[in-house]
Structures are given as structure tokens and as C-alpha cells.
Amino acid sequence: MKETLIDSTLERQVSRQKSSWRAGYLIIFVLFFSLALAPLVWRRAIRFYYSGQIYSAATTQSEPVAIVFGAAVYGNGRLSSVLRDRMDTAITLYQNGKVKKILVSGDNSVENYDEPGAMMAYAIERGVPSEDLQPDFGGRRTYDTCYRAREIFQIDNAILVTQEFHLPRALFTCNLLGIEAVGVAADLRPYRGARWYEFRETAATLNALWDIIRQARPPVLGEPIPFLITPS
Q1: Which pLDDT score is estimated for 33?
Q2: pLDDT tens for residues 5-46?
Q3: What is the DSSP letter of 162?
Q4: For residue 188, what are the CA distances in angstroms to 158, 163, 176?
Q5: DSSP element (H, E) containing 30
């Protein structure tokens, strides 16, 4: 009789332990699944929220400045297709009177690599006067570009020019740093590696939230250079 009671007690203890382990595994799985989904959910939320602030070059409102975000530049200053489309879109905005000036922001952190210089040269070759262009050599990241646009170039209102996959993050960052901005999509063609861009943007959009929470100073700052707009 005693042996039967002991066996029954042990069985109940083992059953409770198994149930406890299952509950623990379930909690770990739910936590892991939630963490894995967090970047996707945040990315979708930002895309949805800022979708109403993204326009074409023809339908956007006028603003004083277009901010063009840098991208890859190859040998001899040749712009990548992504960056070339951003510049062509900004130049169209300028030629159509939608903006009066263009801020070209990109990476110039290593010798012989100059995104803003190549962007500026490209615009000048296509008829944009140099006095209506402002290079930003400290725009290593989207956060740096937005931070410096507000703090260094003292821009309050702008049109952000980049591809549609990048615009929600750019709008989120610039808006939260004090720039009233709308976006113009520079998607003029299909891009090789589009899926990679989307994957990378999912992680980068979550990181943008951390950037806004911290609001750390970018590696490159300097004295203010007001980007003055001459009245028409």
C-alpha cells in the first residue's frame, strides 16, 4: 500500500515537473518569437504612419530645401544607380521650382571616397548653380544627415529625397529631430538587390528608434552653417 502511494506521489511530482518545463519552454518560445517579430512590426508601423507623407516629384508641396541622402559612389566619382536616381529626382524638383536649394549629404570618412563631392559635381554638370548646392560631408548615416541638417545647417522644413524603402525611416528620424519634412520617392527603375535593401531596412528602422531615444551627437559636427534661402 505504501509503495503504491509513493509511486503515485512520484508520478504526480514528475507530471508537475514536466508541466512546469513545458510552460517554461512555451514562455521562452513566445518571448523569442515576439523579439523576432518586433523589427517587422515596427517597420510596418513606421511605413503605415508615414505613407501619407510620401509623394512623387510632380505632386509634392514646395519646400525651401531638398535633402538628398548619400549612397554608393564608384571609381572616378561615378554614382550608383540608387544615388543617381536620388540626384535626378532632386534636380527635377529644383528645375520645377519645388525647392530653391539642395543639401547633398553623404559619407566622406575615408580618403578618396567622397559621396557629397560626387553628388554636387553631378548636379552642377546638369545645370544646378553651385550657390544653390550645399555639401554635407558628415552624413555617414541617415541619423547623422538629419541631425546635422537641423543643428549645423539649421533647416526647419525640407523635402527628403531617397528611395521609397528608405523614406519612412528618414521621415521618422528627421521629424523626431525637429525637421518638418515630406518625402519624394526616387524610384526611377527596379534595383538589383531590392530584397536585401528591404531586409536591411527592417533592422535599420528598429535601430532608428534607439537613435532617437539616445539622440547622441554624430561623430562629425562643427560650427553652424545656416543654409539661407533667398526669397524669390
Answers
A1: 44
A2: 454 554 555 455 545 555 554 455 444 444 455 778 889 999
A3: E
A4: 21, 9, 28
A5: helix 2-50
> C-alpha cell of 102?
539642395
215: left (phi over 0), alpha (psi -120 to 50) or beta: left
CA 147 vs. chain centroid, Å, equals: 12
Fold exhibited by the domain 52-214? Rossmann fold (3.40.50)
Q: Rounded to 5, what percent of the chain is helix, strand, coil?
A: 55, 15, 30
Q: Say which amino acid occupies 119.
A: M
What is the C-alpha to C-alpha distance for residues 150 and 179, in angstroms, rounded to an integer?
Answer: 7
Closest CA to 229 of 160, 93, 134, 104: 134
H helix runs in 101-141, sequence order: 115-125
Give the CA dihedral 14, 19, 24, 27, nearest 10 degrees: 180
Domain parsing of the chain, residue ranges = 1-34, 52-214
Q: Per residue in 127-166, pLDDT tens?
A: 999 999 999 999 999 999 999 999 999 999 999 999 999 9
Confidence at 192, pLDDT banded by 50, 70, 90: confident
Q: How far apart are CA 29 and CA 82, in angstroms?
A: 39
State the pTM of this model: 0.84
C-alpha torsion sign, points 41, 46, 48, 54: negative
